[in-house]
Amino acid sequence: MTLDDFSHADEWGPEKIVTVADTRTGMRGVLVIDNTARGMGKGGTRMSPTLTITEVARLARVMTWKWAGVDLFFGGAKAGVRFDPASADKEAALRSFVRSLSSEVPEEYVFGLDMGLTEHDAAIIQHELGDRRTAVGSPRELGGVPYDQWGVTGYGVAEATDEAARWHGLKINGARVVVQGFGAVGAATAERLHSLGAQVVAVSTSEGAIYDPDGLDVPELLHAKSEWGDGLVHHVGGVKHLSTGEELTLPAEVLIPAARQDVVDAATARRLSASVVAEGANLPLTVEAQAVLAERGVTVVPDFIANAGGVVAAAYAMDARHSAFPSEPSQIRTAVSERLRANTVNVLDESARTELTTHEAARRLAEQRVRTAMELSGRTQPTRVSVRH
Ligand SMILES: NC(=O)c1ccc[n+]([C@@H]2O[C@H](COP(=O)([O-])OP(=O)(O)OC[C@H]3O[C@@H](n4cnc5c(N)ncnc54)[C@H](O)[C@@H]3O)[C@@H](O)[C@H]2O)c1
C-alpha cells in the first residue's frame, strides 16, 4: 500500500480526503473536498463497483469549476461508495457509508445524487442521519427537489442555446435543430426549443436517427419515448431513417450533442452545417473539434455552461433543505434560465474579447473567480496588491 503520495494535489486542492470502510458490509467509500474558497464543497454522491479515489477526486475538481463557471457560491466536492448498486445489500452499505461521514455532514458536505443513487437513497440518507439537511435530491413528498424528473438540465441547455443564437444573430424561432441523444437531457432540450418555436428536424438515440427536413412532431417524439424509450426511432412514421452519427452533419442552424463524449472530432467539425452548437452532454467535442469550430466562426456553448441547469437546481435544493415551503418547478426553471443566459453571454463575450475558444474562456473565467476568492480569503498570496488610501 502506498499512501504517502501527494501527486494528486495542486494549487487548487484537494483540501481534504476522507476514506471510510466497513468490513461487515464490504463498503469502501471516499469523500473529496476539493476547493472551498467560494463556499462549502458540494457535488453528488456516486455508487459504483469500480469506483476509485482518483475518479472521485477528478469529479470533485470538475465541481469546483462548475460552481465557479455558473457563479454560484459553492466549492467543489464529491463522494463515492465502492459498491454494486444492484446488490441486495445496497441499503446497508449506503447507511454504513453515510454514518461513517457523520462528522463531516451536513456542515462540510451534503450528499446528493449521481450514478448509482436514486431519490429513494437520498431519503434513506436523511433518515439514517436523522436530519433533512444531510442530502439533496429526495422526493418532493419529503420536501425535496426532484430536479432530474423536472428535466431541468435540458431546459437549461435550450435556454443557453436560445441566448447563444441571439448572440450569433440567429432567431431561434424557425431555426432548424438537430438533437443527438434523446435521453433525459436531449428530450427536455428538444421540448423547450420546440416551445420557443425552433424546428427540430432530426433526433437520434443509440438505435438510430430520424430526420424530417420539414420538422419532426416533438410532442409525438416525447410520447414515443415514454412508450419505447430509445426504440422510439423505429416507431415514428413519415421520416427518413439514418444511422446514428449521420444526423450531426445534416443541414441545420443548431446542433445539440446530448448523448456522449467525443462524438465530434476535427473531421466532423469541418462538415457541420450548424452555426450554433450547445453541448448538452459532457465533452462531446474533442479539443481539436473546438479549435476547428472556433476558426469556422461557429458559436459553441461549452458543456459546463450549457448543461449547468442541474447545478443551479442543486443550489436551489440546498436552500430548500431549510424551507417548509414545497418547491415549484417554475421557480427553478426561472432561476436556471436567468443564470444560464447570463453565463452564456458572459462566456461568449469573453471569448470574442480574448480570441480564446469558448471552452478556454469559460475555464479561465472559472479559474479567475476561484483564484480571486483564494486571494481575498488569504489562502494564497495575492498576485497584485491594491492599497486603499
Ligand atoms: N442528466 C443530467 O442532468 C445531466 C447533467 C449534466 C450533463 N449530463 C450529460 O448529458 C449526457 C446525456 O445524459 P442523459 O442524462 O440525457 O443520459 P440518458 O442515458 O438519459 O440519455 C442518453 C441518450 O443518448 C443516446 N445515445 C447514446 N449513444 C449515442 C450515440 N452514439 N448517438 C446517438 N445517441 C446516443 C441514448 O440512446 C439516449 O437516448 C451525458 O454526457 C451526461 O453526462 C447529464
TrEMBL record:
Stated name of the protein: Glutamate dehydrogenase
GO BP field: L-glutamate catabolic process
Residues annotated for NAD(+) binding in this entry: 153
Residues noted as binding substrate in the record, renumbered to the chain: 42, 66
Active-site annotation: 78 (proton donor)
Gene Ontology MF terms: glutamate dehydrogenase (NAD+) activity; nucleotide binding
InterPro entries: Aminoacid_DH-like_N_sf (IPR046346), Glu/Leu/Phe/Val/Trp_DH (IPR006095), Glu/Leu/Phe/Val/Trp_DH_C (IPR006096), Glu/Leu/Phe/Val/Trp_DH_dimer (IPR006097), Glu/Leu/Phe/Val_DH_AS (IPR033524), Glu_DH (IPR014362), NAD(P)-bd_dom_sf (IPR036291)
Site (Important for catalysis): 114
Keywords, in A-Z order: NAD, Nucleotide-binding, Oxidoreductase
Lineage summary: Bacteria, Bacillati, Actinomycetota, Actinomycetes, Pseudonocardiales
Pfam families for this protein: ELFV_dehydrog, ELFV_dehydrog_N
Cross-referenced Gene3D superfamilies: Leucine Dehydrogenase, chain A, domain 1, NAD(P)-binding Rossmann-like Domain
Domain Glutamate/phenylalanine/leucine/valine/L-tryptophan dehydrogenase C-terminal, chain residue ranges per copy: 144-378
Family of the protein in this entry: Belongs to the Glu/Leu/Phe/Val dehydrogenases family.
